[in-house]
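WARN no homologs supplied; continuing
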Amino acid sequence: MVNDHTGSRDGKSAMAEIQYRFHYPLQVRFADTDAQGHVFFGTYFTYFDEGLMAYLRNLGFPVKTLLEMGVDMFYVDAHCQYKASATFEEMLHVHARIGRIGNSSFTAELAIYKAVNGELLATGELTAVIIGVETRRPVLVPDKLRAAIASYEDSQ
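OK structure emitted
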Protein backbone atom coordinates (compact mmCIF):
# COMPACT_ATOMS: atom_id res chain seq x y z
CA MET A 1 0.00 0.00 0.00
CA VAL A 2 1.44 3.33 -1.00
CA ASN A 3 0.99 6.43 1.11
CA ASP A 4 2.31 9.92 1.51
CA HIS A 5 2.75 9.98 5.30
CA THR A 6 5.96 10.69 7.08
CA GLY A 7 6.78 10.02 10.68
CA SER A 8 9.31 11.73 12.85
CA ARG A 9 11.75 9.25 14.36
CA ASP A 10 12.22 11.29 17.53
CA GLY A 11 8.76 12.84 17.51
CA LYS A 12 10.31 16.32 17.65
CA SER A 13 11.99 17.18 14.40
CA ALA A 14 10.81 17.28 10.82
CA MET A 15 14.51 16.89 9.95
CA ALA A 16 14.28 13.22 10.98
CA GLU A 17 11.34 12.32 8.75
CA ILE A 18 10.90 8.77 7.59
CA GLN A 19 9.03 7.97 4.39
CA TYR A 20 6.65 5.03 4.51
CA ARG A 21 5.49 3.31 1.34
CA PHE A 22 3.45 0.65 3.09
CA HIS A 23 0.57 0.79 5.51
CA TYR A 24 -1.77 -1.75 7.01
CA PRO A 25 -5.31 -0.68 7.95
CA LEU A 26 -6.87 -1.90 11.16
CA GLN A 27 -9.84 -1.03 13.33
CA VAL A 28 -9.57 -0.61 17.10
CA ARG A 29 -11.41 -3.45 18.82
CA PHE A 30 -13.15 -3.04 22.17
CA ALA A 31 -10.67 -5.54 23.62
CA ASP A 32 -7.84 -3.16 22.62
CA THR A 33 -9.09 -0.44 24.96
CA ASP A 34 -8.65 0.06 28.70
CA ALA A 35 -10.83 1.44 31.50
CA GLN A 36 -9.94 4.98 30.42
CA GLY A 37 -11.59 4.32 27.05
CA HIS A 38 -8.54 4.57 24.83
CA VAL A 39 -6.18 1.98 23.35
CA PHE A 40 -4.13 0.32 26.09
CA PHE A 41 -0.47 1.32 25.73
CA GLY A 42 0.78 -2.26 25.30
CA THR A 43 -1.59 -2.81 22.39
CA TYR A 44 0.50 -0.52 20.20
CA PHE A 45 3.20 -3.22 20.18
CA THR A 46 0.59 -5.67 18.87
CA TYR A 47 -0.32 -3.15 16.18
CA PHE A 48 3.38 -2.79 15.30
CA ASP A 49 3.65 -6.59 15.02
CA GLU A 50 0.56 -6.75 12.80
CA GLY A 51 1.96 -3.99 10.59
CA LEU A 52 5.36 -5.67 10.24
CA MET A 53 3.81 -9.07 9.47
CA ALA A 54 1.61 -7.44 6.80
CA TYR A 55 4.69 -5.69 5.36
CA LEU A 56 6.57 -8.99 5.13
CA ARG A 57 3.52 -10.69 3.53
CA ASN A 58 3.39 -7.84 1.01
CA LEU A 59 7.01 -8.61 0.09
CA GLY A 60 6.15 -12.31 -0.36
CA PHE A 61 7.62 -13.46 2.96
CA PRO A 62 4.80 -14.50 5.30
CA VAL A 63 5.92 -16.46 8.36
CA LYS A 64 5.03 -19.73 6.61
CA THR A 65 7.49 -18.93 3.81
CA LEU A 66 10.24 -18.03 6.26
CA LEU A 67 9.70 -21.32 8.08
CA GLU A 68 9.85 -23.20 4.76
CA MET A 69 13.19 -21.45 4.15
CA GLY A 70 14.40 -22.86 7.48
CA VAL A 71 14.36 -19.56 9.38
CA ASP A 72 12.20 -17.81 11.91
CA MET A 73 12.57 -14.58 13.87
CA PHE A 74 12.56 -13.37 17.43
CA TYR A 75 11.90 -9.80 18.51
CA VAL A 76 14.83 -8.69 20.66
CA ASP A 77 14.09 -4.99 21.09
CA ALA A 78 10.97 -2.85 20.93
CA HIS A 79 10.32 0.86 21.43
CA CYS A 80 7.21 3.02 21.27
CA GLN A 81 6.69 6.74 21.64
CA TYR A 82 3.10 7.74 22.23
CA LYS A 83 1.82 10.95 20.66
CA ALA A 84 -1.99 10.78 20.92
CA SER A 85 -4.70 8.25 21.71
CA ALA A 86 -7.17 6.18 19.72
CA THR A 87 -10.56 4.85 20.81
CA PHE A 88 -12.91 1.97 20.06
CA GLU A 89 -13.84 1.50 16.38
CA GLU A 90 -11.44 4.12 15.04
CA MET A 91 -9.70 3.13 11.82
CA LEU A 92 -5.92 3.29 11.98
CA HIS A 93 -3.08 2.92 9.50
CA VAL A 94 0.05 1.15 10.70
CA HIS A 95 2.94 2.31 8.51
CA ALA A 96 6.00 0.09 8.26
CA ARG A 97 9.41 0.02 6.64
CA ILE A 98 12.71 -1.70 7.26
CA GLY A 99 15.19 0.96 8.26
CA ARG A 100 18.22 -1.22 8.92
CA ILE A 101 19.36 -4.68 7.94
CA GLY A 102 22.35 -6.18 9.75
CA ASN A 103 23.99 -9.57 9.39
CA SER A 104 21.37 -11.52 11.34
CA SER A 105 18.85 -8.85 12.29
CA PHE A 106 16.71 -6.06 10.94
CA THR A 107 14.95 -3.09 12.48
CA ALA A 108 11.47 -2.07 11.40
CA GLU A 109 10.43 1.55 11.77
CA LEU A 110 6.72 1.98 12.39
CA ALA A 111 4.17 4.74 12.82
CA ILE A 112 0.47 4.61 13.55
CA TYR A 113 -1.90 7.27 12.21
CA LYS A 114 -5.64 7.85 12.45
CA ALA A 115 -7.05 7.01 9.04
CA VAL A 116 -9.65 9.79 9.10
CA ASN A 117 -7.30 12.75 9.57
CA GLY A 118 -3.70 11.48 9.52
CA GLU A 119 -3.06 12.35 13.18
CA LEU A 120 0.12 10.65 14.38
CA LEU A 121 -0.58 8.38 17.36
CA ALA A 122 2.69 6.53 17.91
CA THR A 123 6.10 5.85 16.43
CA GLY A 124 8.36 2.94 17.22
CA GLU A 125 10.82 0.29 16.24
CA LEU A 126 10.94 -3.49 16.37
CA THR A 127 14.27 -5.28 16.00
CA ALA A 128 14.09 -8.92 14.95
CA VAL A 129 16.88 -11.49 14.87
CA ILE A 130 16.68 -14.19 12.20
CA ILE A 131 17.23 -17.64 13.67
CA GLY A 132 17.61 -21.14 12.27
CA VAL A 133 14.48 -23.23 12.82
CA GLU A 134 16.51 -26.23 13.95
CA THR A 135 19.19 -24.50 16.03
CA ARG A 136 17.17 -21.54 17.38
CA ARG A 137 20.43 -19.58 16.99
CA PRO A 138 21.06 -16.44 14.90
CA VAL A 139 21.70 -16.95 11.19
CA LEU A 140 22.24 -14.54 8.32
CA VAL A 141 19.26 -12.63 6.99
CA PRO A 142 18.35 -14.64 3.85
CA ASP A 143 19.59 -13.02 0.65
CA LYS A 144 16.12 -13.29 -0.92
CA LEU A 145 14.53 -11.38 1.96
CA ARG A 146 17.34 -8.81 1.97
CA ALA A 147 16.91 -8.28 -1.80
CA ALA A 148 13.11 -8.01 -1.56
CA ILE A 149 13.37 -5.35 1.16
CA ALA A 150 16.00 -3.39 -0.75
CA SER A 151 14.01 -3.56 -3.97
CA TYR A 152 10.79 -2.44 -2.31
CA GLU A 153 12.31 0.35 -0.23
CA ASP A 154 14.54 1.64 -3.04
CA SER A 155 11.75 1.77 -5.65
CA GLN A 156 10.11 4.89 -4.23
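The longest strand covers residues 120-132.
OK
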